[in-house]
Amino acid sequence: xxxxxxxxxxxxxxxxxxxxxxxxxxxxxxxxxxxxxxxxxxxxxxxxxxxxxxxxxxxxxxxxxxxxxxxxxxxxxxxxxxxxxxxxxxxxxxxxxxxxxxxxxxxxxxxxxxxxxxxxxxxxxxxxxxxxxxxxxxxxxxxxxxxxxxxxxxxxxxxxxxxxxxxxxxxxxxx
Amino acid sequence: xxxxxxxxxxxxxxxxxxxxxxxxxxxxxxxxxxxxxxxxxxxxxxxxxxxxxxxxxxxxxxxxxxxxxxxxxxxxxxxxxxxxxxxxxxxxxxxxxxxxxxxxxxxxxxxxxxxxxxxxxxxxxxxxxxxxxxxxxxxxxxxxxxxxxxxxxxxxxxxxxxxxxxxxxxxxxxxxxxxxxxxxxxxxxxxxxxxxxxxxxxxxxxxxxxxxxxxxxxxxxxxxxxxxxxxxxxxxxxxxxxxxxxxxxxxxxxxxxxxxxxxxxxxxxxxxxxxxxxxxxxxxxxxxxxxxxxxxxxxxxxxxxxxxxxxxxxxxxxxxxxxxxxxxxxxxxxxxxxxxxxxxxxxxxxxxxxxxxxxxxxxxxxxxxxxxxxxxxxxxxxxxxxxxxxxxxxxxxxxxxxxxxxxxxxxxxxxxxxxxxxxxxxxxxxxxxxxxxxxxxxxxxxxxxxxxxxxxxxxxxxxxxxxx
Amino acid sequence: xxxxxxxxxxxxxxxxxxxxxxxxxxxxxxxxxxxxxxxxxxxxxxxxxxxxxxxxxxxxxxxxxxxxxxxxxxxxxxxxxxxxxxxxxxxxxxxxxxxxxxxxxxxxxxxxxxxxxxxxxxxxxxxxxxxxxxxxxxxxxxxxxxxxxxxxxxxxxxxxxxxxxxxxxxxxxxxxxxxxxxxxxxxxxxxxxxxxxxxxxxxxxxxxxxxxxxxxxxxxxxxxxxxxxxxxxxxxxxxxxxxxxxxxxxxxxxxxxxxxxxxxxxxxxxxxxxxxxxxxxxxxxxxxxxxxxxxxxxxxxxxxxxxxxxxxxxxxxxxxxxxxxxxxxxxxxxxxxxxxxxxxxxxxxxxxxxxxxxxxxxxxxxxxxxxxxxxxxxxxxxxxxxxxxxxxxxxxxxxxxxxxxxxxxxxxxxxxxxxxxxxxxxxxxxxxxxxxxxxxxxxxxxxxxxxxxxxxxxxxxxxxxxxxxxxxxxxxxxxxxxxxxxxxxxxxxxxxxxxxxxxxxxxxxxxxxxxxxxxxxxxxxxxxxxxxxxxxxxxxxxxxxxx
Lengths: 175, 468, 547
Description:
Helices cover about 55% and strands about 0% of the residues of chain A. Chain A folds into 2 domains: about 1-130, no CATH class; about 145-175, no CATH class. By secondary structure, chain A is an all-alpha fold. Chain A is elongated. The two termini of chain A are about 30 Å apart. Chain B folds into 4 domains: about 25-170; about 170-295, Cytochrome Bc1 Complex, Chain D, domain 2 (Orthogonal Bundle); about 320-425, Orthogonal Bundle (Cytochrome Bc1 Complex, Chain D, domain 2); about 430-470. In chain B, a hairpin with a 2-residue loop joins β3 and β4. The longest helix of chain B has about 35 residues, at about 435-465. Chain B is globular, with a radius of gyration of 28 Å. The N and C termini of chain B lie far apart (about 105 Å). In chain B, about 45% of the residues are buried. Chain C has a domain at about 1-35 and about 220-310 and about 405-420 and about 470-540: FAD/NAD(P)-binding domain, CATH 3.50.50.60. Chain C has helices spanning about 15-25, 45-50, 120-125, 135-145, 170-180, 225-230, 280-290, 365-375, 380-390, 430-450, 515-525, 535, and strands at about 5-10, 30-35, 85, 185-190, 235-240, 240-250, 255-260, 265-275, 315-320, 335-340, 355, 390-400, 405-415, 420-425, 455, 495-500. In chain C, the strands form 3 sheets. In chain C, strands 1, 2, 5, 6, 7, 8 and 16 form a 7-stranded mixed sheet that branches. Chain C has a 6-stranded antiparallel sheet with strand order 4-10-11-12-9-15. A 3-stranded mixed sheet of chain C has the order 3-14-13. Chain C is globular. Chains in contact: A-B, A-C, B-C. At the A-C interface, α4, α7, α8, β1 and β2 of A face α2, α8 and α9 of C.
């Protein structure tokens, strides 16, 4: 798996069909969104929609580096759970690009306009940050230790059920 | 009596009294606290308690069964009980038992008692040990069952021949070309700490191969690894601090943890050694000639990397059949809690990472299987360091899990089968030494018979052909 | 196909209380059978199930109810097992499985304070217990030794002998509370059934911060440990045995119990003495179910009190951001409390309470908040770290007075086995509400002392349930107003005993488990006195020796 991450970029860039995909993706992104995720054009994107998903995810969670394998898994899970998911992602990315919406204002804007895309950011962030796809009785866990909420605090905390350390190690100041 | 005479008499009697008090009794002065303390320390270094105390038994009262390929050897009572222990031993007898393997009644001890190592102990240290065992240990009047090995090994006299071949009975002499620390370390390692008893390979007659000092041996089912200075097969890339930590704490962060018999050695003995003694041992160990195993192409504490086996299967329910759990699922349910999801261990390293760990880096995975089965449990207040999984995992599960661990965190060439686990769980493959020895004797007897018959026949032929 | 089982002692329910009573009786030489409605569980599977579950805040996720022995589930959807008649919901969670509900608890092992058993005489509220704190003391001690309780002497409950273990190491976050709230509020270490060193062959805590729903390493005492100890002492556990009727003879002696196996086959179990230990809801349910011509209102119910006086420890809380990084989530979930508000003359006016500081990781909570608030972009990670480091919470644990209208009855709805479901009738009265109101001042002061911002009080009139199911089979000297006597023997049936938090006639302010265990040990001793003094102190579990 670690190997995958490193090799993907090289192999994807080497493929001739990749150029057309890159152009497609480039079409989705304006200078604005590209500034948010400058690496997006180089990101392995065997599928334009997957690339859009990764780009949109990066914008929403504010992280420039997202694990490709995880992105793929979450995309699959979300696409399987929600109808029109790939098209919606595409549409939202276009919206953000064209209107240069700041991620912090995004939800407000979508809610105010009663946009059909309003639920989408929460779906995506819930998947990345909490590792959950679907809701209510249909909710599924797709990540836990590698969910962003655990990763973001991984220098200080272990996720619940994982040992913090030998007895008494928690008495020390956290950092 | 006039005054001067009285004074003289007083002085003389005081002098005599002084002599009486100050003169050490034969062997030891029981009120010399320093000597007793020294003796106690040396007994700790020698780890006498590990064999001479039964589980939940009184200290030094014997009774522990030491399993050997030729049968169980039962440790004796070495408390100063006159009836059941060594209470009647003189210092010379104590010294002979300790350094020559000869009991007070003249019988030979089996080298399960590591007298071949203790032979190095100096007279002064023997003196302190004797004082401790006579006056610092509580006498216990119960006698453990005497050792009864199967024929022909019950003939203790055979040990005399064995000793002739293999016992170097000279006490340690320091090497003037080496530092004081090196000499102290050599004295401890070769002597009281008797490291070679486990860590030096043995020949067919079960004697240590001195040319392969500390190149690796076995203790029952456990491998006592190569601790020479080889960078791949041994401890060559360990710093002095790593070694000191390992001996004192039972682990070297980011390298290794003591388990099985070594955990016992740290628990009972090594953790109590003074820091200068520990550094001396480290100094000596690092100068041992490197013994390299050709199979070790890679340092055994540098294998593997962080790996999250559950990342792509989180949310997948477990199979009902426990034998169908994957290595990743077994790891998740039983190991990841302490060793963490990617095998990276806790922040403080006290719950160790599984990669860059000798536990997973050896080509021989027996110790890995054993530590999963037995866990690590110290007898002091620290208690359970790692739980035992013998009751919660079956042979197939342990095989799947151990193979998963070596695959992703250790030496991928080390695979584990369920049969291997089964054998280790049962205490190892049964030894054929007793049978071998008996057959060997039968063969020898037959050979002698054959030779005798041949000689008789030859004599008969000569006689019959030579007669007029 | 009926299987005839029989034993000297038949225990219904294999939770920590029933199992420890069973153990003691088995040690005294009785043959003991424990009937458990639910299945056997495996710690490893529970752990994996939790990690794989989508709603990490739902601690019941790894304990799905079995078809034949359902227990209440509320998330993601109420399974409608525990019916709520109101006016206020009583959404207790419990586990019907071998080991019972303490598979998943915070291991709070508190004693009462002496005045807790005399609030009627002292304060004119509630009822007095039929025994004194002093009578309970040696049983508390034995219970603490069995569970392995770690604690210090400064928590308000007098004791004659030291705790088995030193208090569990204090997390940094709790230390800062203790330092900053002194001297106004003394913060003390909770007395917990959690190892602060190797104990009884089990390891010391390594700070998994998941006490609820499961301690992965067995550093916390669980009901399953009690079951294993009972089995080691010779008791036999029969899982998947749903007792649906207690059968009596003409004169009221209990003759047998009847249970269904999951295939709904009927089985009859006879015995000499019966102990009902199926928690404070399932036990009264069973007594009511066992109504007969002789006992039309149910067994042990001549007082009409079976199921009545249902109590709990409701909680309200304050969540806020401290002005320094505390990082809850390092170490055990429930380390510290303020105990000085549990007793005093005010108890005639309003409920007393313990104040509890959580050390549960706030990461899930703050992440959910951020998603709800629609915080995206670089701010997301920044806010997550800032909030997770500072968000803290304090809650009260309020006393509820016994009220005959608060009760468990039989619902008209039946479960999958055709057994009537339990129904809760419950309300929070003014005595408790006034206590909650008073505690708000403490919450505010605590936040002030911690430089708190972003104060969020729990909604007015909203009380969290703490699953301390008490009162439903109260003990008392008067058979017209109580169900069991001071030794847990039902007034109506000389060979039927009850071991449960349900026998506690008042709730006090402390988590009920240790008290219920102490009472159960006392009941066991009463049923079968120890043959010699050593037996009282001995507690050889699976490992043989205590570390």
